[in-house]
Design a protein that fits this description.
Low-confidence stretches: none
CATH topology of the largest domain: Serine Threonine Protein Phosphatase 5, Tetratricopeptide repeat
Strand content: under 5%
Order of helices and strands: HHHHHHHHHHHHHHHHHHHHHHHHHH
Oligomer: single chain
CATH class of the largest domain: Mainly Alpha
Number of helices: 26
Length: 505
C-alpha cells in the first residue's frame, strides 16, 4: 500500500477526539498540514488531484509525497501523545525517554526516581521487554557509584532482576511458541481427523490445565487460555471451548494491561464467543452476550479505539442475522440486510474480507430461502465480482452449486443444462465442500434426463436421503449452519420456497 493510501486510511480510523487533539496541538492554525488533513477527512476515496490543486492554491512548492509523508509522521506523534495518558505501556516508555534526556544532560541522578517508578509499573504489567531496557539503563548507576557497598548492592539487585526477567521472558516465549504451533495446526487441519492428531492436542490440554491450577500471572493465564482454546477447537470439545473463552474474557475485569489485552483482542474474543454460541445453537447465551457487548464498548480500552469498537458492533449485527437464519427466521433475517449493507457502505474501512464474504453469503441464502431468487443472483454476482479470487477459491464449489440452484429456481433450464455441459462445473475434490457439492451435481445431471414428474419426485427423494447422510458427516456439518441443503430437497418436493416449508410434511 502506498504511503498516500496509508495516510488516508490512518486519518479515517481516527476518532473525533484524536482529530481535535491533532488540530489543537498543530504548530499554527491554517498550516498546509492541517489543510491537507481536513481535505483528506472529506475524501471518502483518496483523490490525489484535489490534494495537488490544494498545494497549487496555497503556493506550496514541496512535492505532495513529501507533505503527506511529513503529515503521516506528525499524526503518529500526535496519536502517541494523545494516548500516553490512557495506557501504562505509554507511561513506562515516556518515563524511559524522560530519563534518557536527563541522563544525556549529566543529570541522571534526577531521573533515578522516574526510572524506579517506571520499573515498578513495567513489572506490574509484565512488560518484560521494557524491564530489560530499564535494567540496561540502570547499569550506569553501578559504574558511576563511588561507594563500594552501594555499588555492590546495586549490582546484586540488577543481576537478580535480570535473571528473574530472563526466566519470565523464556516462559512467555515457550507459551507463545505453543500458540504459534497450534495456530499452524488449525490453519492446516481445522480440527483433529486422526488419533495421532487428537493425542497431539490432548498433550497441550493436559499441560495447560496443570499450569493454570497454580498460575496467578495474568499474562501467562491469558496465553494458557489461548493454548486451551485452540486445542479444544481442534478436538471439537465445544463445552470446554465455551467455558475457557468465558474465562479468557473475564480477564478484562482484572488488569487488562497486565494481561496484554489490546483492543483487537477485546474484539476478537467477543467475536469468537458469539460465533461459538451460534455454531452450537446456544441462542440464549448468544443473546446474553449481545447485551453485554454494549457494556464492553464502555471499556476505556475500546473508548480509545473507535476502529475496534465499530468492528465489534459489526460482528454483533452480523451474528444477529446469523442467529435468525440458523433458527429459520428468514423474514427477520431479510429485514436486517439493508441495515447491514448500509453499515458496510458507511464503515468500509472497518470491514475485512471475511466480514464481507460472510455477509454476502448470508444475503444470498436468506433471499434464496424466501424465494427472492433475483436478489440472490444479484448478491452472488457481487460476491464473485468484489471478493478477491484467492479468497473465493475455497468457496468455488459452493458458488457453482449456488448458480445451479438459483437458475433452476428461476426456471432457466437451458442455463442449467449449459452449465452442466461446461467443463467449469467440475467440482474441486480438495475442498471440504466437495461432498455437498458433488451430491447436488449428481442430482442435477440426472434431473435433466427425467421425463416425468413422478420420476423427478423419486429422484428428489433419493438425493434427499443422500444429502441427509452427508449432513451427518463431521467435516460437512459446518456447511449446514447457514443453509440446510436437506430443506432444499423438501421444498422442491413440496413445490414451495424453503421459508414456506411444512416441516411436518
Amino acid at each position: 500500500m502506498k504511503k498516500s493510501q496509508q495516510l488516508h486510511q490512518l486519518i479515517h480510523t481516527m476518532s473525533k477526539s484524536e482529530k481535535r487533539y491533532f488540530k489543537i496541538n498543530s504548530n499554527r492554525e491554517g498550516s498546509i498540514y492541517v489543510k491537507v488533513f481536513d481535505l483528506i477527512i472529506d475524501q471518502k476515496v483518496y483523490d490525489i488531484v484535489q490534494l495537488k490543486d490544494l498545494l497549487i492554491a496555497e503556493k506550496i512548492s514541496s512535492p505532495l509525497a513529501r507533505v503527506q509523508h511529513h503529515l503521516y509522521l506528525l499524526l503518529l506523534k500526535s496519536l502517541a501523545s494523545f494516548h500516553a495518558a490512557h495506557h501504562p505501556r505509554y507511561e513506562v516508555m515516556d518515563s524511559i525517554r524522560h530519563y534518557l534526556i536527563l541522563r544525556d544532560k549529566g543529570l541522571h541522578h534526577q531521573g533515578k526516581a522516574i526510572l524506579k517508578k517506571a520499573l515498578k509499573k513495567a513489572e506490574e504489567n509484565n512488560y518484560y521487554g521494557l524491564v530489560l531496557q530499564i535494567i540496561d539503563l540502570m547499569e550506569d548507576w553501578v559504574t558511576e557509584e563511588e561507594s563500594f557497598d552501594l555499588a555492590q548492592d546495586q549490582k546484586n539487585s540488577l543481576v537478580g532482576l535480570y535473571q528473574t526477567n530472563i526466566a519470565f521472558s523464556s516462559s512467555i516465549a515457550e507459551l507463545k511458541k505453543n500458540i504459534f504451533d497450534l495456530r499452524l495446526f488449525f490453519l492446516e487441519n481445522k480440527f483433529a481427523r486422526s488419533e495421532n492428531q487428537r493425542d497431539f492436542l490432548k498433550g497441550y490440554v493436559t499441560k495447560a490445565v496443570d499450569l493454570l491450577d497454580t498460575e496467578e500471572n495474568l499474562l501467562k493465564k491469558r496465553l494458557l487460555f489461548t493454548v486451551l482454546i485452540y486445542s479444544y477447537y481442534g478436538l471439537q470439545d465445544f463445552d470446554s471451548l465455551i467455558a475457557t473463552e468465558k474465562k479468557r474474557i473475564e480477564l478484562l475485569d482484572s488488569n487488562w494491561a497486565a494481561a496484554h489485552i489490546s483492543p483487537f483482542l477485546v474484539f476478537a474474543y467477543h467475536r469468537n464467543l458469539l460465533w461459538i454460541f451460534l455454531s452450537n445453537k446456544q441462542y440464549k447465551e448468544h443473546l446474553l452476550l449481545l447485551g453485554n457487548v454494549k457494556n464492553v464498548l464502555s471499556l476505556s480500552l475500546l473508548q480509545n479505539s473507535d476502529f475496534y469498537a465499530v468492528k465489534l458492533n459489526i460482528a454483533a449485527a452480523l451474528s444477529t442475522m446469523y442467529a435468525d437464519v440458523n433458527q429459520k427466521h428468514y423474514h427477520q433475517a431479510y429485514h436486517q440486510i439493508s441495515g447491514l449493507w448500509n453499515m458496510y457502505l458507511k464503515f468500509k474501512n472497518h470491514w475485512d474480507i471475511d466480514f464481507l464474504a460472510q455477509s454476502l453469503i448470508l444475503f444470498i441464502n436468506t433471499s434464496f430461502c424466501l424465494g427472492k431468487y433475483d436478489e440472490s443472483y444479484k448478491w452472488l454476482n457481487y460476491l464473485e465480482r468484489e471478493i478477491p479470487q484467492t479468497y473465493v477459491l475455497p468457496y468455488q464449489n459452493m458458488g457453482k452449486i449456488a448458480h445451479l440452484l438459483i437458475h433452476s429456481s428461476l426456471g432457466n433450464d437451458k442455463m442449467v443444462q449449459n452449465m452442466l455441459e461446461s467443463t467449469r462445473i467440475r467440482i474441486y475434490r480438495k475442498f471440504s465442500f466437495f461432498s455437498v457439492a458433488n451430491t447436488f451435481l449428481k442430482y442435477f445431471k440426472r434431473k435433466v434426463k427425467c421425463k416425468s414428474d413422478d420420476a423427478q419426485k423419486k429422484l428428489l427423494i433419493q438425493y434427499r436421503e443422500q444429502m441427509q447422510v452427508v449432513s451427518q458427516k463431521k467435516e460437512q456439518k459446518g456447511f449446514f449452519i447457514l443453509f440446510n441443503f436437506v430443506d432444499w430437497f423438501d421444498a422442491e418436493i413440496q413445490n414451495c420456497s424453503i421459508a414456506e416449508l411444512n416441516t411436518k410434511f
